[in-house]
Amino acid sequence: MASANGELTSAGYIQHHLKNLTVCQTEQGWQWSGAENNYVCDGNFMAIHVDSVGWALFLGIFFLWLFRSVAKKATVGKPGKLQAFVEMIVEFVDKSVKETFHGRNPVIAPLSLTVFVWIFLMNFMDLIPVDLLPMLFQAGGVGYMKVVPSTDPNITFGLSLSVFLLIIYYSIKVKGPVGFFKELAFHPFGPWMMPFNLLLEGIGLLAKPVSLALRLFGNLYAGELIFMLIALLMTAGIGGFIGGTLAHVLWAVFHILVIVLQAFIFMMLTIVYLSMAHEDH
Amino acid sequence: MNINLTLIFEMVAFAIFVGFCMKFVWPPLIGAIEERQKKISEGLSAAEKASHDLELAKQQAASTMKEAKQEAATLIDQAKKRHSEIVESAKEDARNEADKILNGARAEIEQEVNRAREHLRGQLATLAVAGAEKILERNIDASAQNDIVEKLVAEL
Fold first, then answer.
1. What is the ipTM of this complex?
2. What is the pLDDT of residue A4?
3. Is B32 an 8 Å CB contact of chain A?
4. Quick check: is A81 in a domain?
5. Residue A41 in domain
6. Domain residues for A101?
7. DSSP string of chain B?
């Protein structure tokens, strides 16, 4: 929370909150990034956001552990409360997949489930009071902590690029390399407009992962930022505190919708894109 | 926006998670759900069939009941008929028996009357003889008529 010189300013507070706990490979070996070394890792590709990766892994493993423990004990008879809850999600995802994706592919449904629940959990971290976990970690000597992995473009692009690779893979697998090329080259105009078609379809194709990643990142990053601004507002006198508290409640309630919606949109678009990759014109 | 190794980590983690989910999480859950859906639909159709069967059984029971009632009614009719027949024949028998007894009694009475008449007639004869003897006392030899006297004594 404190800036490098120990003085708390609004800009410092926000800047500090937007820094990941980063470790990177430099000429002096692996180093932690921080104000003291002028954020040495910025712009370095050989860097890891330990907080993003850590929380993402933690939440992903939590999801798999929870669902696996239910799956192991899953009974056909009367389900318990946890099983009913998990089955509700599974059925919801299954329904969404069946409505959109008409081919036969055993990967799509588990992929969608993973996308939906994992992104939801990552987004859910946004509802934890914005300073709670960073302060706890600060007390433990960790200076930087961004707890919402989906506010890290690395995470959202990691997901969307994986989906993009699957789109390419299934397009080539289903249509063949030639078929895939034809789809890119001969639409929407005839073969005589091939360069233009390629440009158009290529942008369309590339826009998929970029829009997927940026939509999720943008929504969550903005949401997180507004929580921070509200937190700042709450320090501005008694009026600010009351107004901030009110705004915080309202924004948190609204955010419940946003985090579910964003997870759902990411999942639905993943299904739609993969469904399009399976369609042979 | 620093794009760095985190992206690669995320992609690898995503691939592993999806693989795990595909292998260990999705199949048992969706299997259980689909199995239950099948069971429920089977149960529903079984329930429908059962209610249909119940309806049939009710109809059958009603018709059986009706038959039984009819049978019972005819049985009761027959029994009443038989009852009156038996009563009639019993009455007939009783009447016949009574007639027989009456006739027997009458015959016996007649016999008794006849016998009494005979008896009286005999006694009358004796009295007549005794009277006659009294009248004829002198003429009768006691010894010679002893058998008649003895007869009289025995008769008294």
1. 0.89
2. 44
3. yes
4. yes
5. no
6. 51-277
7. ----HHHHHHHHHHHHHHHHIIIIIHHHHHHHHHHHHHHHHHHHHHHHHHHHHHHHHHHHHHHHHHHHHHHHHHHHHHHHHHHHHHHHHHHHHHHHHHHHHHHHHHHHHHHHHHHHHHHHHHHHHHHHHHHHHHHHGGG--TTTTHHHHHHHHHH-
